[in-house]
Every structure is written in C-alpha cells, then in structure tokens.
Amino acid sequence: MAKAVHREPSAASFGSSSGRARRGAVDAQRRDDYVMYDTRTRGDLARCVSGACLAGAWNEPALVDRVHRALGRRCPWTRPLVREILAAYHHPPADRPRELARFIDLTLAGWPAPEDEPQPPLPRRWYTPAPEMGRRRWPVPEIGSLAALAQYLEVSDGELAWLADVRGLERTVEQERLRNYWYGTIARPGGTPRVIERPKHRLKGVQRRILHEVLDLIPAHGAAHGYTAGRSVRTHASVHAGRFVVIRLDLRNFFGSITGSRVYGIFRTAGYPESVSHTLTGIVTNVVPSSFWHSLPRPTDSRQLSAHHALGRQLATPHLPQGSPTSPALANLATFNLDRRLAGLADSLEITYTRYADDLTFSGPASLVRRAQLLRRAVRDIARDEGFTVNESKSTLVTRAGRQRVCGVVVNQHPNISRAEYDRLRAILHNSIVHGPASQNRAATPDFRAHLLGWISWIASLNPQRADKLRREFARISWENES
C-alpha cells in the first residue's frame, strides 16, 4: 500500500513563534495524512465492518465479500484487514462485537491513507448479527441477547432498561419514586458514614434471581469465607485458632471500591456477550443520587475531609451498592485476584491467610512478629494494585498473651465466644425471666424470641456447653403476654 507524499516545511519557518505555530500545523497535517481517515469516519467503518464480518461464514472470501457489500464498493485495504482479523481471531468473536470493532479501528489507524481514494467509503448496509454466548467456564444459564435476558428475567424490554438504568437517571432524578433504591446512612464514630443503598422490591427480586441462578454457580477463592456456601465466620476464625500471633487488616469502603467495569468483567468471564454483560452490570451496580450525597453533613474534622471526598467520588460512579443481595457474592468474585495474591504471599511466608468480606486475617508463629511490618507493606501494595485501600487505623496485631479475636470470635486456643458476650446474653435471659422479655427488647426487635434463639444457636456453634446453660435459662421465660 503506497505511502502519501508529504511536503516538508522550509527552514525559514523554524525559530520564531509564528514558525513554531506553522511547524505544529504541518506536523498535525503530516499525522492526518498518514492516519487512515478521521476518528469518527474510522469508528463508523469499524462498527459496520465488524457487523458484516460476524454475519456469516468465517473465512477470507466470505468476509471480503460481506465487507464489500456493506461498504458498497471495493477498497484496497479490505483484504489485508480481513487477513489481520482472521490472524487475531481464529473463531468469530460473536460474543464481543465491540471488541472486534475496536480491533478494526486500531488496525486502520495504524495504516496510511490510500493516495488514490478521493473520499473515504461510507457504510451502505448495516448487518445485525445475533450475539452469542462465549466460552462458559461454569454452568451458568445461557443468555445470548438482550431479548433473551428480558425473557429469562420475565420483564419487558422497557422494564429491563429501567432496572439497568441505561439512561443514568438514578444519579440526577430528584423524585424519590423514580429511583430504584432507598438511601440511608449508618454513622461510624471517627469516620465517614456508611451509605446504605437498598434496592426496591422489583429490582431486589431480579437481583436475587441473578444471585441464585448465576452468581452462586461461580466459585470464589478458597480464602474467602464470607457469603460463601459451606463457609462462615466460624470457619474463618477456626483457621487461625491456637496461633502465636494474629494480624488483622481492613479494606476501606469495600463495596464502593468495586467498580462497574470490574463487575462487567465478571459477567464477561462467565461467557455472557457484551450487551448482556453491560445490562447485567447495570442491574447489580448503582450510582448514588448527587442530591442525597450533598444532603449529608460534611465532617467537621479536617482529617476526615479527604476520606469523605474519596467516598463521594466512589459513590458517584457505578459501584456495588451496600444493601443489594448480589453485592456480597460479586465482591467475593471481584476480589479473587486479591485473594490469590495474598494467599501466595502467605504461602511464601509460611503463614495462613483468610478473608471475610473486608476483613483480612493472617496468623502464624512467633517469627511473624518480626516480619509484621514487611507483611503490612506487601498487603498494602497488593491491595492498591487491585484497586483497594487498607484502612491503617483498623490494623491490629495480637499475640497469644492478649485476647485474639477474629470477627468477634476468640481464637486463642479454639474458636470460642467471649466471656463478656456470654455474660451479657445470660443477663438478658435472667432479666427476661424476672421482668418479662419485653423489658429487655430495648431495640424493638420484631421477633425477639427468634432473635434470642439465634443468638444461642450462634454460641452453640462455638461452645455447646455454654449454650446448654443458656437454653435452660431461655426455657424459663414466659412468652404468654408477648404479641
């Protein structure tokens, strides 16, 4: 393919400000001469050619023929472009037409403009090939198109677009009834408030279906113990029982740190085509309304302003909403690489690592005390590489000389409930016997009886002997006057 001929600027044009300006204009013209068409024209051609390539047989003659039909004429670069496509994609990327279009765009941008082509070709025919599933690594449902997704979720096309917020209204709409989420905050002493984003009934139902029928089929890393079938706080804590030293670190703004692009990557890895992955990402991520965020009081402590602004930036972009049923499972999948790297770091130091949500726990022998600073720096660097920030103020190191706690479980010798928590529950049960359970339900828990039984069951998983004593106390409570 012949290169364009360029006229060099004269020597007199260099040295003065006007000469530098003319030189810049000449350099820009030189770049334009070498580049295949302008950006907009090239983008339109790339999308048109991508659709034509995916609309039939995947071989050179068929691709060349369809591209010529789509452009309405033969172009000197068509066959070389088709050969580049076939060299890069041995099979048609039917699940990623946008990626193919981007590849075509970049390929054309690297070629010089043809000398003998007075006008660039214009798309004459747009092919609309049906998208397909990519390689499924796990037995997730096959959903190859947006129409199939709407049918699978039992919603109309319009409702699907509404739930996925394709118009981006959640951020700007003022009327609460037009939003897909309820918003609230939980104060945190000495820190930024925890923003709760609870999906409304219809969206929550769709998210739960995605959770149970898609996300539950994708395994998390073995180090993840939170929100994972067969694992719990107890399994997370028991791994670190009886160790000389336990080190705990915390990830700041865990859910808000997981961006929509990372969630999109999870659905793409599962095999869903680009359009379906984009829509699923819209359904399970959220952007907090600016009016709600600006209604929150700014921290008075200047040291908290930076964290406040950082949280605001995170919530202003698509992220995992804290309060959605899909967020914990997606958080586990989004941190797979973080878990893999931290587990590898732990293996290299001959120590143990597990994670429960945003709680990172390491444990090991006495030698870990000397290497604690090295470990913290390495974890901080790895977390930053993976898009997370370690909350240094919540980092703790406790040897067996102190009370070692992992997610509230004492692990000095074996997983156990703390004496203070046991005494507290025992006092509540005793006072319920003497004064009635209503007198102890200070938080107005809807089903206080079930609440106490759940608390006892939790203690039973750690210390059955103590739980037996509590059950005997619970049996003495009179519930006759309780509604």
What keywords describe this structure?
47% helix; 483 residues; two-stranded antiparallel ribbon; disordered N terminus
Helix fraction bin:
40-55%
Shape: elongated
Helix-strand topology string: HHHHHHHEEHHEHHHHHHEEHHEEEHHH
Backbone CA Rg: 30 Å
Mean pLDDT: 89
The first-to-last residue Cα distance is: 86 Å
Strand order of the largest sheet: 4-5-3-6
- Fraction in beta strands: 5-15%
Query: From the helix content, strand content and strand pairing, which structural class follows?
Result: alpha+beta
Helix tally?
A: 20
Largest sheet: 4 strands, antiparallel
Number of E-state strands: 8
Task: Identify low-pLDDT runs.
Answer: 1-33
Write the layout of secondary structure elements.
Blueprint: H1 17-34, H2 39-53, H3 60-71, H4 78-88, H5 97-109, H6 146-153, H7 157-163, E1 181-186, E2 194-199, H8 201-213, H9 233-238, E3 245-250, H10 260-269, H11 274-284, H12 290-295, H13 302-315, H14 327-334, H15 336-349, E4 352-356, E5 359-364, H16 367-370, H17 372-385, E6 396-399, E7 405-406, E8 409-410, H18 419-435, H19 448-462, H20 464-474
Helix pairs in contact: 2-3, 2-5, 3-4, 10-11, 15-17, 18-20, 19-20
Structure in words:
- The strands form three sheets. The protein has a four-stranded antiparallel beta sheet with strand order 4-5-3-6.
- It is elongated.
- Mean pLDDT is 89; it is low at 1-33.
- With 483 residues, it is an alpha+beta fold.
- Helix 18 packs parallel to helix 20.
- It has helices spanning 17-34, 39-53, 60-71, 78-88, 97-109, 146-153, 157-163, 201-213, 233-238, 260-269, 274-284, 290-295, 302-315, 327-334, 336-349, 367-370, 372-385, 419-435, 448-462, 464-474; strands spanning 181-186, 194-199, 245-250, 352-356, 359-364, 396-399, 405-406, 409-410.
- The longest helix is centred in the N-terminal third of the chain and has 18 residues, at 17-34.
